[in-house]
Amino acid sequence: MNLNTPVLLASLTVFALGACVPTTEENRRQQTGMAAGALIGGALGASASDNKLAKAAVGAVIGGAIGGAIGSALDQQAADLRNSIGNDRVSVTNTGSALIVNLPQDILFATDSASLRPDLTQDLAAVARSLMTYPDTTVQVIGHTDNTGAAAYNQDLSQRRAVSVASVLVANGVPNFRVAALGRGEDQPIASNLSEAGRAQNRRVEIIIRPNS
Hints:
There is one protein chain. This protein has 213 residues and is α+β, with helices and mostly antiparallel strands. The chain has 7 helices and 5 strands; from the N terminus they run H-H-H-E-E-H-H-E-H-E-H-E. The protein has helices at residues 5-19, 28-46, 52-84, 105-108, 121-133, 151-171, 196-202, and strands at 91-94, 99-104, 137-144, 179-183, 204-211. It has a 5-stranded mixed beta sheet with strand order 1-2-5-3-4. Helix 2 (28-46) packs antiparallel against helix 3 (52-84) and helix 5 (121-133) crosses helix 6. 37% of the residues are buried.
């Protein structure tokens, strides 16, 4: 049997796992997690020196179950966040491996300020409650700016804004060790800085929620 057999077996296991449930928008990411977990598990099983085929099968099933559970938990947390945040300008995106809560800077801060608008603390408190409900996650709060002004100033401003948002999460009960605040300045735009609409999209704070491995 050639070296690719365990990975092929893992792929067949993915098909079998996915065939158990009809594919819908709600379970699509769960199935993606199952697939990734099964393939990783199969590869790990294939590295054993004996009983490669059996170990690959066991690894695929276990990995698929773990990946499916992670995907399901992310789907549920994303739904809970969307229901609890009372601002339609705040988006929650499930990438399959993490949740990204995107908060436009213009609803959080005045121009050139790192002081949060008081009315936004309620939405951040809702995020904190979600993080407490799903404790097996880590959180990165990342500040971003457009490219207006000096790069060094934008870097500092983005860092201070990330710290402001992270501080509200911690003040609402999220353990400090779970939260990291980072500033990216103008280095990671998601739109063109050549238009005001694009610059507005780039001015943002992202809360990235990742399951613990």
